[in-house]
Design goal:
Length: about 350
């Protein structure tokens, strides 16, 4: 039983990591098109962009539900600490996602009086991205814990670091949205996205560099993890791979490649996520609770993993099937998916 209680939390945190990574890269691009929405003033252009993401957006949010359930079922002690520490940004996130989802559906049936739904879609997407960044920043900077419970103040999450993470995620999602538009549309909509692409890439790289400098300076354990020997020799491929992905993304944008900018921008997010895992493992609540301390009883973990083993392949298959069925570009004047 002791070996099982050591292994199961590791498997659970890998499942949680897959859910979070899939949500970020998949729902990230449709939040990104909402962030870019105000820069496409023509109704025909907005319709083209919405059609490019219409078959995918609601399925992408499945990963958010799956990740939340994984945290709640697999690590209830950590869930009970994290949620009270970020109640306000979580509420903002949920309200923003509701507004974004309602606006997505209602703008089609409200035409020609759909202007307010366009505004709701843009602001809902932007605020959802910013709230996710606030939550991430609050978690990374550490949560005050006493006797296994959150012991901080209601606004502990609001710091310069968390605000920076919020802005970084808005820029990163906008990059994913721009590269998605490059891949899935044609005409002026695609060309405008390419003009946005390089500045957004540079902004995202700037934020990645800022986080990479800020966290080791603020947290000695992160600096020790990355810059001590022999760790530095094993971890140096991560920043090198990030630089390579950024170069390929830039080349893909400038040379009018369709798929390369999107795949490499996703790679940048995944490499950033990997960097965070390296920095903070094995803590699920930095630096107060490890994955073993926060895990549910082995029987509960095993029960959940059996369900996840059935459900996870189904979600992956459905996601892959939708991407295959709705492959190809959306051109001006194509029929609406609604």
């Amino acid at each position: 039983m002791s070996e099982l209680s050591d292994i199961l939390p590791v498997i659970l945190v890998l499942v949680l990591g897959v859910a979070v990574a899939m949500y970020v890269v998949l729902d990230g691009f449709d939040l990104g098109i909402g962030i870019l929405f105000p820069w496409y003033p023509k109704e025909s252009e907005r319709d083209q962009i919405m059609n490019s993401v219409a078959p995918f957006w609601d399925g992408n949010e499945t990963w958010l539900v799956f990740g939340g359930v994984s945290l709640w079922a697999g690590f209830p002690k950590a869930f009970g600490i994290i949620l009270p520490s970020v109640y306000m940004p979580v509420i903002v996130l949920l309200l923003a996602l509701i507004f974004r989802g309602v606006a997505f559906e209602f703008r089609w049936v409200a035409k020609p009086h759909h202007r307010k739904w366009d505004i709701a879609f843009a602001w809902g997407s932007t605020m959802a991205a910013f709230a996710q960044g606030l939550i991430l920043g609050a978690l990374l900077q550490g949560i005050k814990v006493e006797d296994g419970q959150f012991a901080g103040r209601p606004l502990d999450w609001l710091t310069p670091f968390s605000v920076m993470c919020g802005l970084a995620l808005v820029c990163g999602y906008a990059l994913l949205g721009a590269t998605w538009i490059m891949m899935k549309t044609a005409g002026e909509v695609e060309q405008r996205a390419r003009r946005f692409g390089v500045p957004l890439l540079l902004l995202m790289l700037g934020f990645l560099a800022l986080v990479s400098i800020w966290t080791p300076l603020q947290f000695e354990r992160v600096a020790q993890r990355w810059f001590s020997t022999p760790n530095i020799f094993f971890l140096v491929p991560v920043p090198l791979a990030t630089a390579l992905a950024a170069l390929l993304c830039w080349l893909g944008i400038r040379r009018n490649f369709a798929i390369l900018p999107f795949t490499t921008s996703m790679a940048l997010f995944l490499l950033g996520f990997l960097g965070l895992l390296i920095s903070y493992a094995p803590y699920i609540v930095p630096y107060s609770m490890t994955i073993w301390q926060g895990a549910s009883p082995p029987s509960s973990q095993l029960f959940y993993l059996i369900g996840a083993a059935i459900l996870l392949p189904m979600i992956i298959f459905y996601t892959a099937l939708v991407f295959w069925l709705f492959r190809g570009r959306i051109r001006p004047g194509d029929v609406n998916y609604h």
